[in-house]
Amino acid sequence: MQPMAEAAFADGFVGRWDLTILDADQKPLPSWLELKRDERTWRATFVGRWGNARPLPTVAVQRDQIRFVSPKQEEDSTNDLVFEGTLVDGTMTGSAQGP
Predict the structure, then answer these.
(1) Cα–Cα distance, 18 to 97 (Å, whole number)
(2) Going along the chain, which residue ranges are E strands?
(3) Phi and psi for 17 in degrees, rounded to 5?
(4) Where are the alpha helices (DSSP H) in the chain?
(5) How confident is the model at residue 18 (pLDDT cuts 50, 70, 90)?
(6) How far, in Å, CA of 63 to CA of 69, rounded?
(7) CA-based nearest residue to 52, from 38, 25, 70
(8) How many CB atoms lie within 10 A of CB 10?
(9) Residue 33 in contact with residue 15, Cβ under 8 Å?
(10) What is the predicted pLDDT for the residue at 3?
(11) How confident is the model at residue 79 (pLDDT cuts 50, 70, 90)?
């Protein structure tokens, strides 16, 4: 795939996403993620299981894949919360590893 075509493909992630996180008991928790792209740099703002909107230090998009990290300090945990997802037909699905 040409670099410009790949960039256009990844642009499908740009915008605000309403997310549902399932806790260990499969209870749905509302969340959201906003993604912006500036040249080659991705920026993300996230509301997790609780708290306020905060910028994420790590977000990577490659083609139809995304990975972002909510730091352990924000999650009141000993581990970071790591999200990985895929974009298919305008819908993002994925998983989270962590608390």
Answers:
(1) 19
(2) 15-22, 28-38, 41-47, 54-55, 58-62, 65-70, 81-88, 91-97
(3) -120, 125
(4) 3-10, 72-75
(5) very high
(6) 18
(7) 70
(8) 19
(9) no
(10) 40
(11) confident
51 near 70, Cβ under 8 Å? no
pLDDT, one tens digit per residue, over 20-36 is: 888 778 899 888 999 99
Measured CA to CA, the distance from residue 5 to residue 79 in angstroms comes to 36
Find out whether 11 and 37 touch, Cβ atoms under 8 Å: yes
Give strand pairing partners of 8. none
Sole residue written with tokens 């993620």: 33
- SS3 state at 41: strand
